[in-house]
Amino acid sequence: MRPKTTARDLPPRMLRRTKVLKSGKVWAAYYYNGRSAEGKRVELALGADLAAAKRKWAELEGRAAPADTGLMRYIFARYEREILPTKAPRTQTDYGEQLALLGKVFGGMGIDSLTPQHVAQYRDRRGAKAPVRANREISLLSTIFNHAREWGYTAKENPCKGVRKNKEQPRDFYADDAVWAAVYGSASEDLRDAMDLAYLTGQRPGDIIKMRFADLRNGALEVQQGKTAKRLRILLAHDGVPTQLGLLIERIRQRAGQVSSLYLVATKEGQPLNRWTLRVRFDAARTLAVQALHERGDTALADRVAQFQFRDIRPKAASDLPLAHASRLLGHTEHEITQKVYRRVGETVMPTR
């Protein structure tokens, strides 16, 4: 075979085509210099990703894939490019941060050299400072490895399988009525709407701020959860009698002087609350409540109020309802999830006598 005079960094019969875009960026793609059944020269597209292109080249040549194409950094990059955009916005942010951390540790390793011992060492070192985050990162690593198996990068068993996770202690704070009343009494009008909506629907903060008047259809508030895509219809009336949620919606509709807004939770000017404004308002109300309680000398309640977070409203809703009802409202298919993660008060029972 005649030696290559261009693209000498590429394997035999592998070509690179480049183009300078209007932005000034150089676009590159790779092709296989092959022959058709009739012996005519044909170029087969291998894609724009060099590592993936080399693997396709190896298949066409009947050779083993070059070792450097199995580096974890290429697999991380493919997951980020192909899979991550399909996730919810918040999940994309979280996974992006986790990918950056995983890349620093495992990026230079070949996929077949990754062992359970490496994963356990990561768990111990990362877990010394952030045990829960270490668990989440290992879970993502496991997911990516499974994708890599499907993509053909390896036939090896997932090295995360069977590796013990760091022990996690689920949050068990329960916002009792006194805690709720303290913060609610110091809250702005839009924050009260958000708190009531979160409690009555049992939905996550991210779903609360997205609820719109257009979601009110056929006597129900229609919800599609951002995290799970689960769909729910939460009734505004039952047997002709308005539910507390129905009364809340009517209260928001009829509020005098409110500027028209597309969203159920909005400021007086009609602007929807986002995650940041919701948190700022809640933190401010909680601070005012704690200060007032300290002035009254009720330090015990003040300490409990100081622990209250907006995300505790969903568990409060789950704890204040029968288990089966709570599971359906929260969108869980398993009662066990509701019981283990969200129920924060013990079961009410009768004494022996």
Q: How many strands in all?
A: 8
Structural class: mainly alpha
CATH topology of the largest domain: hpI Integrase, Chain A
**For the residues shown, what is the average pLDDT?**
90
Q: What is the total domain count?
A: 3
Q: Gyration radius, to the nearest Å?
A: 28 Å
Number of helices: 14
How far do the termini sit from each other? 95 Å
Explain what this protein looks like in three dimensions:
This protein has 353 residues and is mainly α. It has three domains: 14-65; 72-151; 177-342, Intergrase catalytic core (hpI Integrase, Chain A, Orthogonal Bundle), CATH 1.10.443. Helix content is 47%, strand content 11%. The protein is built from 14 helices and eight strands. The chain has a three-stranded antiparallel sheet with strand order 1-2-3, covered by helices on one side. Strand 2 and strand 3 form a beta hairpin. Helix 4 (116-127) packs antiparallel against helix 5. The radius of gyration is 28 Å and the shape is elongated. The termini are far apart. The mean pLDDT is 90.
Features:
single chain; 353 residues; mainly alpha; hpI Integrase, Chain A; 3-stranded antiparallel beta sheet; 8 strands; 11% strand; elongated
